Amino acid sequence: MAKLIGSRKKKIAVFISGKGSNLKNLIKHSLKKNSYFEITLVISNNPKAKGLEYAKKFFIKRKIINYKNVNIAEKNILEEVKKNKIELICLAGFMKILSSDLIKKFKGRIINIHPSLLPKYKGLNTHQRAIDGKEKYSGCTVHYVNSKLDSGKIILQKKVKILKLDTCKKLAKKILKQEHILYPRALKKVLINL
Ligand code: GRF
User: Fold this and answer.
1) Which of the four, 59, 109, 147, 163, has the lowest number of CB atoms within 10 Å?
2) Residue 92 Cα, ligand 1 centroid: separation in angstroms?
């Protein structure tokens, strides 16, 4: 931690596609007195993402990336990330898969939050699949992004008990609450070593 005290805040970009509750939570953390990061860029592939409203409210630069052509989309992403001197990319509900080329260019500097206890339940519909799989626990994981989906090195995880009466919606709500605790913690862990 000592390394961060007194040093400048690290510049973070958050990539979103929808609701943006994790973004909202990270913004809240970034505004704390002793915060170790600032969010200077929000990227969304979806112009209607609700999360963009939070970015606007806090005067954070927003960039909508048109994904009709993936190569052009990624060229634009890279340009924005470089232009804004971004040190770490945080994916938070970003529904596009980044190419291994882009990941290589930003090696070790892209992290993601996933709503399951990885390596279990990579991909989509994690809550329903965990319930159907009769799991006792699910949870959330913050991990580095590598070229395989939801497979990079785990940074932090939080377990959440699945109760008999939990529906997919109930479980999603419980896990999201934990995501909001886990992501800032994981971010701190990553930034200390950056
Ligand atoms: C979260 O559950 C996150 O784990 C997953 O997508 C969801 C995004 O939620 N990758 P929000 O947009 O941050 O509210």
Assistant:
1) 59
2) 6
List CB contacts of 134: < 8 A, sequence separation 6 or more: none
- The predicted-structure confidence for 117-147, as pLDDT tens digits, reads as follows 999 999 999 999 999 999 999 999 999 999 9
Tokens of 81: 């990330």
pLDDT at position 75 is 98
Which pLDDT value is given to residue 2? Answer: 44
Residue nearest to atom 5 of ligand 1 (CA): 93
Q: What pLDDT was estimated at residue 193?
A: 84
For a pocket test of ligand 1, which of 98, 171, 173, 176 has the largest count of ligand atoms closer than 8 A to its C-beta? 176
Per-position DSSP letters for the chain, written without gaps between them: -TTTTTSPPEEEEEEESS--HHHHHHHHHHTSTT-SEEEEEEEES-TT-THHHHHHHTT--EEE---SSHHHHHHHHHHHHHHTT--EEEESS--SPPPHHHHHHTTT-EEEEESS-TTSS-SS-HHHHHHHTT-SEEEEEEEE--SSTT-SPEEEEEEEEPPTT--HHHHHHHHHHHHHHHHHHHHHHHHHT-
pTM of the shown model: 0.95
In the prediction, which pLDDT does 6 show?
A: 52
